[in-house]
Amino acid sequence: GRMGEEMDYIAHVRKDGEGWALHALGEHLRGAAYRAERWAALLGAGEWARLAGLWHDLGKYAPQFQSMIRRESGYDPEEEIVVGPRNHSTAGALHAVGQLGNAGRVLAYLIAGHHAGLPDWYGDGNAAAALSARLRDRLHLDVLPQADIPADILSPGIKPATRMPGANDDERMLGAHLWLRMLFSCLVDADFLDTEA
């Protein structure tokens, strides 16, 4: 049966003895946000990390991701194929910029890179992986079932302090790089540990 309405959306699924262990998407996003925020609070960046955690897997709400995870895990091999974008991190990156404007770009880097590593803004040979290119692909947001995404995840009403350390000061720019990488670490670890748990 249904384990509450949010179980319709799966973040992760694995075979568990005779049955299946399902990780609800809303639960994963909130869990990752909680862990990331706790660590990043040590940098004074808790709110940034909370938003990154809430939005990092937003693309998993897309019907094509849900059909793919059900089918390819073997959980529901009869699931019909839904065609569309398969990467699940661009949607959250787009959403962050939509919600926070230029400040959202900080989150877009973290979210877009949470599996592959921090992207470049402009591409070289691998232009499609560049963040500027990925943020032009609105389709990733358009396919999300906005009405089904809980409000506390989609619009938690948090506006983080928009200044990251040293952003407007060449001498301190190095501090911004380090800050971004620390924040990235908080997100990646939170995602991994919440998934593992």
Q: What is the fold's blueprint, element by element?
A:
Layout: E1 10-16, E2 19-24, H1 25-40, H2 46-55, H3 63-72, H4 90-100, H5 104-112, H6 131-134, H7 139-142, H8 151-154, H9 173-196
Antiparallel strand pairs: 1-2
Question: Key features?
Answer:
2 strands, 7% strand, 197 residues
| Class from secondary-structure proportions | mainly alpha
Estimate the global geometry from the Cα principal axes.
globular
Largest sheet: 2 strands, antiparallel
Distance between the termini: 23 Å
Q: Overall pLDDT, averaged?
A: 87
Q: Output the radius of gyration.
A: 17 Å
Spans of at least 5 consecutive residues with low confidence: 1-5
- What's the multimeric state? single chain
Count of distinct strands: 2
Q: Which sequence of strands runs across the widest sheet?
A: 1-2
Give the SSE string. Answer: EEHHHHHHHHH
The portion of residues assigned to helices is 40-55%
Share of β-strand residues: 5-15%
| Helix segment tally | 9
Task: Describe it.
The chain has 197 residues and is mainly alpha-helical. It contains nine helices and two strands; from the N terminus they run ββααααααααα. It has a two-stranded antiparallel sheet. β1 (10-16) and β2 form a beta hairpin. α2 packs across α5 and α2 (46-55) packs across α9 (173-196).
